[in-house]
């Protein structure tokens, strides 16, 4: 039951964040954890709270550029620098994770760690966000795919 | 009347996003000062007249809670309203920040309308 609630919260928070601050609405929503194809931007952050856990995000490079351009109000996705893209995808991870935890741990305190982002080549190994039976939200857009993972160290 | 604003956030991208939303909202903005943490904000507050501070909580060097406390403890700054803009929307955190002296709280993600309304309330701007 708790897993389903977390799943719903993750999906709702991811979609709401993307719609309100990144001006992007997903075409398809699922719980498929498979890594998107091609070059990716991955972000990982850990959080402390009751319980603590880990949040991960992988985004197709083209989608990451579009989201960064939307966030900065830039018309040309090519003019957004890679460092800016990484910073903005980190901010996206921070907001989605914070939104889920704010609902889950409304009466408690939690602290988000600093997000760490990495650029991954098409076949380059990346962090294993699937460890620990995470809740997963996969969002498909015309420019690519965004998959978010949330795993608690101990689910109460 | 143009308002002087301060945006405090360790993410440069978030500061620019907030500034863009404010600019698009049509609010009459004079000076808009940016700081990446509470300590930097305090220095700039002592050098500039600011009508409203928008601050994140989770920042290095000096966080948003410490900034709110420092502003409230400073004779010259204590009347400057602080609007917290944070990913942390837990009731505990909101209550704590408001009890420390913050005048408003906006949780990320926020719509441009939500931010504008909260700012207008604190600045006493009427939409009539």
Beta-strand content of chain B: 15-25%
Q: Give the topology string of chain A: H per helix, E per strand.
A: HEEEHHEEEE
Strand order of the largest sheet of chain B: 2-1-3-4-5
Total number of strands of chain A? 7
Number of helices of chain A: 3
- How far is it from the N-terminal to the C-terminal residue of chain A, by CA? 11 Å
What share of residues of chain B is helical?
40-55%
Main sheet characteristics of chain B: 5 strands, parallel
Uncertain parts of chain A: none
Order of SSEs of chain B:
EHEHEHEHEH
Beginning-to-end CA distance, first to last residue of chain B: 16 Å
Oligomeric state: heterodimer
Largest interface: A-B, 29 and 21 residues
The backbone outline of chain B, from C-alpha atoms, is globular
Arithmetic mean of pLDDT of chain A: 91
Mean pLDDT of chain B: 94
* Tally of DSSP β-strands of chain B: 5
| Shape descriptor of chain A | globular
Helical fraction of chain A equals 25-40%
Radius of gyration of chain A, rounded?
15 Å
> Biggest sheet of chain A: strands, sense, closure?
7 strands, antiparallel
Can you characterise this structure?
The complex is a heterodimer of chains A (156) and B (128). Chain A is built from 3 helices and 7 strands. By secondary structure, chain A is of the alpha+beta class. In chain A, strands 1, 2, 3, 4, 5, 6 and 7 form a 7-stranded antiparallel sheet that branches. In chain A, α2 (61-72) packs across α3 (82-104). Chain A is globular and about 40 Å long. Chain B is of the alpha/beta class and 128 residues long. Chain B is 44% helix and 20% strand. Chain B has 5 helices and 5 strands. In chain B, α2 (38-47) runs parallel beside α3. The longest helix of chain B has 14 residues, at 12-25. The chains are: A alpha+beta (156), B alpha/beta (128). At the A-B interface, α1, α3 and β4 of A face α1 and α4 of B.
